[in-house]
Design goal:
This protein has one domain. The chain is an all-alpha fold. The protein is elongated and about 55 Å long. Helix 1 crosses helix 3 and helix 1 runs antiparallel to helix 4. This is Nickase.
Amino acid sequence: IHKEMEDVEKKILYYEIYKAKKGVYEEYQKKNIFTKDAFYNENKKDIDQYKVVSGKLKKLLSDKEKLSPKKWNEEKSLLMANLE
C-alpha cells in the first residue's frame, strides 16, 4: 500500500507542476525559429520543469492511463482509508 500511495502522490504532484507550466511550454512550441531561442532563455526554468515532469508522468502512467487527477485523489483517499 505504501508504494501505491507514493506513486499516487507523485502523480498528483507532477500533474500540478505539469498543469502550471503547460501554458508556457505550449507558447514556446508556437514560437518561430527567430523568437524561439529568446523565449526559451527567458522561460528556461518553466520549460525544463515541464519537460521533466511530463517525462516522469509518462513513466508512472500505464499505457492506457490518462491524466486524471480527480481519479488519483479518490485513489489516494481510498488508500489512506485502508491504512487506518
